[in-house]
Design brief:
Blueprint: H1 2-6, E1 11-15, E2 25-33, E3 36-40, E4 46-49, H2 50-56
Antiparallel strand pairs: 1-2, 2-3, 3-4
Length: 64
């Protein structure tokens, strides 16, 4: 995820319960700056720490 964002690629992320949803929700990661991820979310656009996003993702790239 970090490498993709660093070279300007977009990342679609399926999120589990947490800051973004009570059930399931997709968000678009659009950039990275000093460890903070720019998020386009249909419900709320914000900047989040990478660790928070990774913790709430349903699947990480290492999982498939």
């Amino acid at each position: 995820m970090k490498e993709a964002l660093s070279v300007g690629k977009l990342v679609i992320s399926s999120m589990g319960k947490g800051h973004f949803t009570d059930g399931g929700h997709y968000i678009l990661l659009v950039g990275i700056n000093n460890g903070m991820i720019d998020v386009y979310d249909p419900n709320n656009d914000k900047v989040f720490e990478m660790q928070l996003l990774r913790h709430q993702q349903k699947r990480r790239e290492s999982e498939g």
